[in-house]
Design brief:
By secondary structure, the chain is mainly alpha-helical. It is built from three helices and no strands. It folds into two domains: about 1-50; about 50-125.
Length: about 130
């Protein structure tokens, strides 16, 4: 693969992955800055409501977002290889295997999350 194409693909993926986080952080920070400047306790007003379950939930949410981004990258990678195979059966099979493994992986992750959420909400919290 050409170095220029690799650079463009990697740059594009970084923009897609990093840009939304930067934008959301900027909006959130500006909102909280206004609350702090108003003289009240700001974002730390209800600290007692933040517990271990919320922290674990945030970590799991971040991990699922990362796994989703990896799944998207794998699908784009395999699709690119499939489209540029030019009839070479080995490359097409490799792309199909990558797509199949990515789909199986995302099914396993979503299934594990569903089982964990069911157990946590119905058995542990009650």
């Amino acid at each position: 693969m050409n170095k220029k194409i690799k650079f463009i693909l990697i740059s594009g993926l970084l923009v897609v992955i990093i840009f939304p986080a930067v934008v959301l952080a900027a909006n959130s920070a500006l909102d909280k800055l206004g609350e702090v400047g108003a003289g009240d306790a700001g974002p730390y007003e209800n600290v007692s409501e933040t517990g271990v379950s919320q922290i674990v939930g945030a970590v799991i949410s971040g991990a699922l977002a990362l796994i989703g981004a990896i799944f998207l990258a794998l699908m784009l990678y395999a699709g690119y290889h499939w489209m540029t195979a030019r009839g070479e059966e080995e490359k097409v099979e490799k792309a199909k295997d990558t797509i199949q493994r990515a789909i199986i992986g995302i099914i396993i992750v979503v299934g594990a999350y569903a089982i964990w959420k069911f157990i946590f909400e119905n058995l542990i919290m009650k």
